[in-house]
Request: fold
Amino acid sequence: MRASQLLSPTLRETPAEAEVVSHQLLLRAGFIRKSAAGVYTYLPLAQRVIRKISDIVREEMERKGGQEITLPIIQPAELWLESGRWHVYGDELFRLKDRHGRDFALGPTHEEIITDLVRGEVHSYKQLPLLLYQIANKYRDERRPRFGLMRGREFVMKDLYSFDRDEAGLDESYQHMYDAYTRVFTRCGLNFRAVEADAGAIGGNNTHEFMVIAESGEAAIVYCDRCDYAANVEKAEATAQEPVPEKLKAREEIATPGVKTIQEVCEFLRIPAGKTIKTLVYRTEKGLVVALLRGDRTLNEIKLQKITDTLQLHLAEEAAIRAVTGAEAGSAGPVGLPKGNLNAKEEELYLVVADAEVSKLINGVCGANKTGFHMVNVNYGKDFTADAVADIRTVEAGEPCPKCGAPLQTARGIEVGQVFKLGTKYSSALNAKFLDENGKSQDMVMGCYGIGITRTMAAAIEQNNDENGIIWPVSIAPYHVVVVPVSNKDADQMSAAEKLYNELTGLGLEVILDDRNERPGVKFKDADLIGYPFRITIGPKSLQEGTVELRRRRDGQTWTPKVEEAAAMVADLLKG
Ligand code: ATP
Ligand code: MG
Reply:
């Protein structure tokens, strides 16, 4: 391909709207252009990267027996009503009507439509397991589309669905996909980790997310260097710290005028925050929830939602806190609270949940439920109880690994893929059954597995860039090498460049010939910005001495091979 013909409009300035580096570089290097919030055109270079990632994904899906299909993007509302998701999916679902007023949705994910296909076509255990996948656009009306391709409203996803006879079969399909994903992201040249994630309503140890490690990642993860434990912070198990033993003392109420925050309590009483109990009041669709945790800990709302079986959880406003505890937020505490009521009305107390550490705390300090007062020497069981004791806090760096006890590390990650055991959620709702060996009708056991293709492209840039631009991993680079004649007006340079171009192409490499009428500095800048793994420069010296300059983008290393040896050398370096 000749650079003069390539549509890759590079920009010198960093576009103001782009916050993360992948978004900036995709715009600057001429890979994408915005059409609407979260909706982009992929220009030729981006399209090539998408194709490369897709091809790797395809190979790995087929290696595990996946069969490629294409499911419709436009999906009838009836199927979503049948699964029960039409009303729960919310505003993220792009909904539309046809000319007859019938409801449709643009597919954000395809469980309904594939279950509908399979229930119609598959009836016997002999046809299972079945692994079907597609690579196609997905539509999600994200609340905050941002970071370019990272969180779009239209994006490319690979989604595979597995259908098995039983849980054991699902376990096997899941492991196959887990292994395939590991190969995919390794082949894409990415530094990633598979982490245990929260399975939401389905629960259990049923899902892993594949995270590309990057500062700009929206997810926080913890992992262990000593064993293989890794989890999304939303899910990571906290180990309750054992308190230093001491004698239980008698509870006392003390005046703490104007003392509100944990920090103020600690300063006033000269105690560490780990001795205090934080009392948080949440409003949920099932009533008010009181959560108790140590003052030095952070509440994990996902864990609290799970234990309280609620969908909506927001910190309650001052009036609700006062109604439940009888005091201002700064003086709220667990002593004397009423018991929760499972049939509570919205304004009533539904549950009191104590973090496991609060139940272990000896001689703790908390608000006295009387404005301006605190209680010291409070102990769980003796002075207060809760309706439930559970792990409801967020794990922090340095805490012990729940598997092996070594200190946990934290990192930020970009979720590029997820594997998920669905079980019979969709097959039972949509009646997708098969006849087993004994002629008995059974629900199919399903799994679903997604890879964000366009997000993976962005994540690769987040991990591979420098101040000059993108540094593509070879396996997903749009082209392998750019040949730059210093002057396109010099006929000898041009013909040497053409010759080299043909040799490289003949070796199966993907090559750009920068034949543009630009100064060499501009060509070099663009080559670095776009991120070709190798650049070959042909200048006056090449013609005098018969050598070219070969430069590797990743580390700037250069070689000066003979012109006739250059192509083979690049091919070799690309293999390594
Ligand atoms: P997130 O939590 O980031 O919103 P998700 O968990 O809802 O993602 P899945 O339903 O698991 O996403 O989709 C599978 C994959 O599709 C994700 O792992 C991610 O790589 C990609 N993906 C999801 N939403 C988007 C989006 N808005 N833009 C680009 N890629 C996305
Ligand atoms: Mg996900």
In short: The chain has three domains: 21-188+421-461, 252-390, 479-575.
